């Protein structure tokens, strides 16, 4: 084999997105791959807020050059690749998530009301020829609710900043809206930290959050910022350790057993088996 071809062949065997390239906070042998580079993850543009349906055939996410005003996209599986279209129901938003059946999308948007900045949560639902008009959800008004994890039965887990930052849960009220948000757990959202971007297992007995905003002097007890796994035992949530990944967010699980997250401005995926996660 000519020397040049040999070099190209050897280069093709190198892993894409190694931990050493992105962060020094994980073990050197942990690797992940950019998800659909050139289609979902574009160079020079930051992707964020991925959320996938249970069948793995639809992903919603956002692209941004400004973290306040992100442009939403909907990607559908097409053969061996993806077809990507801008979401038609809103120009920009803060973040979004799709329900497991793909019938509804929740999103957070910051707006003006009587000259004041307010935060609203909307839901759109599939119709015969597209998506419904956005429906405002008053129970989640102006608490900075976002980073949603909708469940199959309609339960909605999410992050909010008010009355204190952390993970909340709300149940459908039977009239197309939601009842009052309920604080999930002091263990999941330790005092003084910011626990956001919750991913809840369909059985609702496991979850993953991104922990940030750790106060000075509590890093030894709380650990470094990053993705943390929790389990529910006898009705109480307990921490089961930090995932062996850099500081990241946007946790989702693909049907083929890969863990999806956001790092270095791209959507990344790594096999759950490589992380040692029982999901």
Strand content: 35-45%
Mean pLDDT metric: 88
Query: In CATH terms, what is the fold-level topology?
Result: Neuraminidase
The major β-sheet equals:
5 strands, antiparallel
Helices, by number, come to 4
Give the CA-CA distance, first to last residue.
44 Å
State the CATH class: Mainly Beta
Describe this structure in words.
The protein is mainly beta and 279 residues long. The chain has a single domain, classed as Neuraminidase (6 Propeller), CATH 2.120.10. It contains 4 helices and 21 strands. It has helices spanning 3-12, 19-22, 219-222, 272-275, and strands at 33-34, 46-52, 58-64, 71-78, 81-86, 95-98, 104-113, 116-127, 130-131, 135-136, 146-150, 156-160, 166-170, 182-183, 194-200, 206-212, 226-233, 236-242, 249-253, 258-263, 266-271. A hairpin with a 5-residue loop joins strand 15 (194-200) and strand 16.
Topology, please?
Layout: H1 3-12, H2 19-22, E1 33-34, E2 46-52, E3 58-64, E4 71-78, E5 81-86, E6 95-98, E7 104-113, E8 116-127, E9 130-131, E10 135-136, E11 146-150, E12 156-160, E13 166-170, E14 182-183, E15 194-200, E16 206-212, H3 219-222, E17 226-233, E18 236-242, E19 249-253, E20 258-263, E21 266-271, H4 272-275
Antiparallel strand pairs: 1-21, 2-3, 3-4, 4-5, 6-7, 7-8, 8-9, 8-10, 11-12, 12-13, 13-14, 15-16, 16-17, 17-18, 19-20, 20-21
